Amino acid sequence: MAVVPVFLSVVLVVRNQASQLETLLAEAQAHVASCVSDYELIVVDNASDDSSIAELKRLAGEHGLPNLQVYALAKQVDTDTATWVGLENALGDFVAALDPMTDDIAFLPTMLESAVCGADVVFADNAQKVPQSLAYRMAASAFSALYVRFKGIHLSKEAPQYRMLSKRVVNFILQHSQPAVTYRHLPATGGFARVNLSYSAAPKSAGKKQLGESVERGLRLLVSTTHAPMRLVTTLSLFGALANVVYCIYVIIVGLVKADVAPGWISLSLQQSGMFFLISLVLLVLGEYILHMASLSNEGPLYYVSQEFTSARMTRHQKLNIEEAASVQRDDGGIDTPPSI
Prior knowledge:
By secondary structure, the chain is of the alpha/beta class. It has two domains: 4-224, Spore Coat Polysaccharide Biosynthesis Protein SpsA, Chain A; 229-298. The protein is built from 13 helices and nine strands. It has helices at 21-33, 52-59, 79-87, 108-116, 134-151, 155-158, 167-174, 179-182, 186-189, 211-225, 228-257, 265-298, 315-319, and strands at 4-14, 36-45, 68-72, 94-98, 121-126, 163-166, 194-199, 328-329, 335-336. The strands form two sheets. The chain has a seven-stranded mixed beta sheet with strand order 3-2-1-4-6-5-7. A two-stranded antiparallel sheet has the order 8-9.
């Protein structure tokens, strides 16, 4: 691929990889510099507790790597939040986000080729995955099934974390109240031109992900990006209220038809069903209120213009430049020529 005259930002999230930083960043610099006219490498250190900060300072020094920008986090956060730290500070026309230990930087020129051809979002999925435990795979499958059911997208396949975004997509995400959360799913659901690519490369790291952290992250993503879980709660509350009404009617019918009803059964049943009816109504109202507040706090702008075009030929502009050639007879016998428009 020839050198593309664009400014490319590459975001890499690292943690406790001091011994590998120089090799990883030198490899990234070589691949990026060979395919674009200008670039920057944005390294987000996710609160490393080894000598990574000192190594990054050395690499960013006078005799280190060029075009290096480092953001060191004081507290460890999830991968999506750490990645967003780099994206919101990126200056490039296109921004690529990847994990240097699992994603292949050599595939970046192929992604860039799709981006410069008009794709606002380019996803890259590696066919070779890092081996995970059985419990992690089961939890990931359950989360994927729920997210597909509620949101209609398979995140790991249709929106992997290795991605390239145009600047207008980043600006669109910035307009949301929680961009670090919406960044994970929004590029795949925002209506932008999207391309999904696949490749096969052995990951550099065999480290396994923590199940507890992944479950917490998945639940937060599921609750914050879709109203389906709370909508299920309100639906169950409505069903419970209706079921108690039906039970009250059943108790009254039994009391009218049956003569050998146990003493106190009717009053006790009506009391219990009435209380459960009120509780269900309270839960229904609270659920709807929470849904309303969530929609106000999590939704983005009312609209976002991703692109704007104007016709090359505007008829109103042509009319403004017409010169009137007709003559006008004056009252005194002379001839006036109307002024040009």
